[in-house]
Amino acid sequence: MFRGTSSITLDSKNRITIPTKYREELMNDCQGKLICTVDIQNPCLLLYPLPEWEEIELKLCNLSNINPQERLLQQVLLGNASDCDMDKNGRLLINGPLCEHANLAKNVMLVGQLKRFEIWCDEAWKAHMQKGIAQIQSGQVELTERLLDLSL
User: Fold this and answer.
1) Rounded to an integer, what is the distance from CA 46 to the centroid of its chain?
2) DSSP single-letter state for residue 41
3) Cβ–Cβ under 8 Å, residues 103 and 124
């Protein structure tokens, strides 16, 4: 499970370096093979270990390619999916269109989200967090049944 936020750097070749604390797990679980695609709800990227991504692909495969909404989701997620193999130094190459989607520059945040990572421009991540915390504190977040059952 991936958790926490790591400040990392995007180099001039559009590579990021996965923090050391995740590398062994990623090598053991998926031999360093990951898939990166766009997030359809936020200006960030989603980075999945290959086995996790394969589960998503099966779900996408079960959608209709005739239904316009379902086909659009397939096109966006699959059409932007990019293989990212971690090298011996823990680096991943992020392709140009993905970097553009997330407005990635030098300073990047790698955010653990249990079975995947999110990759954010650091400024966008900070703004997203400030907005989210403000919404929660002001009561603007609807408390669903599951949230009411969550005890921290």
Assistant:
1) 2
2) S
3) yes
**Position of tokens 């002001």?**
138
Buried b (16+ CB within 10 A) or exposed e, 7-29: ebebeeeebbbbeeebbeebeee
Look over the chain and give the mean of its residue pLDDT values, rounded to a whole number: 94
7 or 147: whose pLDDT is higher?
Answer: 7
What's the angle, vertex CA 133, arms to CA 37 and CA 145, rounded to 5? 80
Task: Considering only CA atoms, give the Rg of the chain.
Answer: 17
This prediction has a pTM of 0.92
Confidence check: pLDDT of 152 > 80: no
Report which secondary-structure segment, H or E, holds 82.
Answer: strand 82-85
Which neighbouring-strand residues pair with 15?
Answer: 93
Contact 110, 10 (CB under 8 A): no
Share above pLDDT 70 across residues of the chain, in percent, rounded to a whole number: 100
Distances (CA, A) of 84 to 5, 69, 94, 111, 117: 20, 27, 7, 17, 13
CB 117 within 8 A of CB 111: yes
